[in-house]
Amino acid sequence: MIDTVETAGGGDPTTWALRVLRDRITQQPAYASELVDVLLAVGRDEQAWQEALHHRRWLGGPQWQTLLQGRAVTHPEEVIQPYRDLVEQAVLNSADKQRYRRAVALLTALKAAYQATGEHAAFEQYLAELRVEHKRRPTFLKTLDATGL
């Protein structure tokens, strides 16, 4: 509910909402997800990115991936490590039967980020290291091979 005392004077409701969310985050960090959504909605992408980095554990996977996709357009170098982390999480998530397909989809986005930075060889090296690291996961390696990565 909007605090009519604070906004009745013509104050900016966006500023008020952001302040309220930031105050709530100090008590309940789970509100970070909503803060990031509001920042994106009002076009404050840089602030949304910084908040997302600071409160990463409170963001859901789809929200984080959306942020990474947007950030990759303007700052591809900043999304490489987060994508690598997501790939590793996907491969190791034994509760997800689609984990290898999810990992490969993330690898496609990661490859694009590497290409955008001009580091084509670095992606190939990462992929070779990933194959060695997960050599005991033949289904994962077959999934990689099937996609041509």
Observed structural traits:
single chain, 149 residues, mainly alpha, disordered N terminus
Explain this structure.
With 149 residues, the protein is mainly α. Helices cover 76% and strands 0% of the residues. Helix 2 packs antiparallel against helix 3 (32-41) and helix 6 (76-92) runs antiparallel to helix 7. The chain starts with a helix and ends with a helix.
SSE pattern: HHHHHHHHH
How would the global form be characterised? elongated
Distance between the termini: 50 Å
Instruction: Work out the number of β strands.
Output: 0
Q: From the helix content, strand content and strand pairing, which structural class follows? A: mainly alpha
Helix content: over 70%
Quick description:
This protein is mainly alpha-helical. Helices cover 76% and strands 0% of the residues. The longest helix is centred in the last third of the chain and has 19 residues.
Write the topology of this structure.
Layout: H1 4-7, H2 13-27, H3 32-41, H4 45-54, H5 61-74, H6 76-92, H7 99-117, H8 120-133, H9 138-147
Helix pairs in contact: 2-3, 3-4, 5-6, 6-7
